Amino acid sequence: MAEETLSIRDNRTGEEVEIPIVDGTIHATELGKLGLMSYDPAFLNTASTRSSITYIDGDAGILRYRGYPIEQLAEQASFLETAWLLFEGELPTAKELEAWQDKVRLHTYVHTNVTRFLDGFRHDAHPMGMLLGATAALSTFYPDAKEIGDEESRRLQRLRLIAKFPTIAAWVFRHSRGLPYVYPRNDLDYIGNFVNMTFEIGGRHEPNPVLQRALEILLILHADHEQNASTNAVRGVGSTHVDPFSAVSAGVAALYGPLHGGANEAVLRMLDEIGDVKNVPAFIEGVKKRERLLMGFGHRVYKNYDPRAKLIKRVADDVFAQTGLDPKLEIALELERIALEDDFFVERKLYPNVDFYSGLIYRAMGYPTDYFTVLFALGRLPGWLAQWEEMLSDPEQKIARPRQIYTGYDERDFVPLEQRG
Q: Are 175 and 130 in contact (CB under 8 A)?
């Protein structure tokens, strides 16, 4: 079969080039043969890498990790199974999973100086700011993390991050509440340990297995999502060959933004603004007139119903059966019902996304609004690390350095200060 190509003729010079088409793409550097660059603000139609980790078909509403449908993983896998899958490319055997869980337990403790670092934050510091600072600070505790060319060292750093991130995330929660830090209990599983470190009071915490499994499902649903803003940040910073703690902190910083990880907080603020089910129709009209923002609907990639949103809606039923209905849920359900029947939203393919219900669930579990994005980061960590490892192992990947189109002045002569009007 003949190689597929794209023929481009430069009408300025009459020069023609044949550019190979591989996997439905052309290599941007081929345009350099004509003295041209590609221009794609925000990477709307640019593939920055080849990846075998996550597959998304936004039109069909498909999300798969390493080929496995997200629906099957959310229903049957544990979070640590999912992390192993993202790292290794295959589901673990029973023996591999047991050894992996044991290794994670052995690394859950962090240096006691981390508590002093967290104590330096004000009591009302945003949890994501604390998580960001503490994650970056871990790089100073593990100088060997800079040995990114050593495969075994990379494996150890991934293990350290997976094990210690929940401890730091829980301590961020405790600091925000003025509560003493609770240390890891290695007799508990990964999710149970995190929940215990978060909510234990006076040495006691009664776990709710339904809520813990719901939290685990939410973390699995967030584990990776292709080249999103935070993953792109991890890859971009990681391309400088910095240690993984620093690269992951770049992902935390990107997730901190309200257009990325902070979206579920915005959904709750929107529901607060609506206030009552009877106000939903007026709010919808305000959205159609561009007077209001509809949060939790639409997605850069999905032009169909976000498959994660369908799963989260089912999780919500389990959670609220345990905790009782949140009055905001009634508003959310009515908002979704009207939006899905209104031609304005249907024509624009604005469907609920993963953020629409997750905030309500987190709040029902007892997490405050400003902590939601920390939970998002906890879930996304395996994806960041898998993408970081893949980037370092790809011989085509060099230091990330986008080009630009210069739009400023031509050359100008310096004007002495006394001559400037």
A: yes
Per-domain residue ranges of the chain: 5-55, 63-256, 263-365
Of the options 1.10.580.10, 3.20.20.370, 3.40.640.10, 1.10.530.10, the CATH number for the domain spanning 63-256: 1.10.580.10
C-alpha dihedral over 338, 343, 345, 347, to 10 degrees? 150
Q: What is the pLDDT of residues 250-297, one digit of tens each?
A: 999 999 988 888 777 888 889 999 999 999 999 999 999 999 888 878
How close are the terminal C-alpha atoms of the chain, in Å?
69
Is there a contact between 183 and 291 (Cβ–Cβ < 8 Å)?
no
Helix axis angle, 190-199 relative to 151-177, nearest 10°? 30
Cβ neighbours for 69, distance < 8 A, ≥ 6 positions apart:
62, 63
271 and 327 Cβ atoms separated by less than 8 Å: no
Q: Cβ of 369: how many Cβ atoms within 10 Å?
A: 17
> In this structure, are residues 189 and 181 in contact, taking their beta carbons and an 8 Å threshold?
no
Sites in the chain below the pLDDT cut of 50: 1-2
Cite the active site residues.
Answer: 260, 299, 355
The CATH superfamily label for domain 263-365 reads Cytochrome P450-Terp, domain 2 (1.10.230.10)
Structure tokens at 218: 């939410």
List 204's β-bridge partners, or say none: 201
Of 67, 86, 106, nearest in space to 385 by CA: 86
Strands 54-57 and 5-9: unpaired
Other C-beta atoms closer than 10 Å to the C-beta of 406 total 7
